[in-house]
TrEMBL record:
It comes from the Bacteria. PROSITE patterns: HTH_LACI_2. One of its GO terms (molecular function) is DNA binding. This is LacI family DNA-binding transcriptional regulator. Keywords: DNA-binding, Transcription, Transcription regulation. Residues 5-61 form the HTH lacI-type domain. It holds the Pfam family LacI.
Amino acid sequence: MSKRPTIADVARLAGVHKATASRALNPEADARVSAATARRVRTAAQELGFTPNTAARSLRTNRSSTVGVLIPDLTNPLFPPMARGIEEVLTRRGYTALLANTDNDQAKERTRFEALRGRQVDGFIVATAQREHALLAQAHAQGVPVVLLSRGTDLPMFPLVAADDATGMELAVRHLLELGHRSIAHLAGPQTLSTGAIRTRAFQQAVRAAGVAADRAPVLVSEAYSVRAGEQAARELLDRHPGSTAIVAGNDLIALGALHVLRERGLRCPQDVSLVGYNDMQFADEFQPPLTTVHVPHLELGAEAARLLLEQLERSDGQGAGRGAGQGLGRAGAGPAAVAVAVAKTVLLPVRLVVRDSTAAPRAGSEAG
């Protein structure tokens, strides 16, 4: 059996020192090598079929070069772009993302979290946060490096990367007001999630600032960000507030459920009821009619979360923490000092309104009275 090529073999073929070859093949150190040298080393490595020994590197650095990523529902079209953004940034830095789907189940989430800790991941990117979240509170107390993605906690324990939901909802309401609507309902997302609570609060502030009476701006809460929950909330809305001429949905799946119910009730969109979604998920432009919605940069959200976590890990290395998220957790007395945790800052990425065919001016006379 042929001998596995070593870094020394690569260095010899590339005509460089062994340390130079090692730096050129390390995404965290390749900036210290000229571009021409790095190319020569990579070419030599490819020619020899050399792959870096990540296990040996982990022993030297006390890092696994892996990151745990908790996703609430991989069937939701919003999350795969986030995961891709995470992976693109981590891969460039020599890290691997270990993805875990929780199905919005807290017991499953804890099991996945503990399993990833057992794999000695260096940190976590968590898109499953509830406003009150016992698992995250425990992780914070134990000093686990975490960045929250899209959804935050009421107590700002960890850095958060999210969309500017308050502005997004303001854009949606302003669009409908400019079309002439004065009976605008909100089918809100779950209020246990920061996205649902923030968007609801922003909707209420926007209609109030415009002088829309509270009884003409009802809010009905969907139990989940799903088509079925959207259908249930839309039926309740049309039963209780049949005069609503426009709906702002908490997300595009809720909006799709509302579309189903409008057809079920013999109502046309946008001629009878205008509809605005939120997220601009894939295929929103294929809805019938194509959906006006707030565009959220999901890939960029994931990428920024990965960058924030890497910064956090580098900072902990500089302070001598030097261990992964799976090491030393659960010990008596393990606290925030065990692993350096960055200041819990929030990064909000800009959103924009995408106007399509699901919104139009209200029918003449429909806003009377």
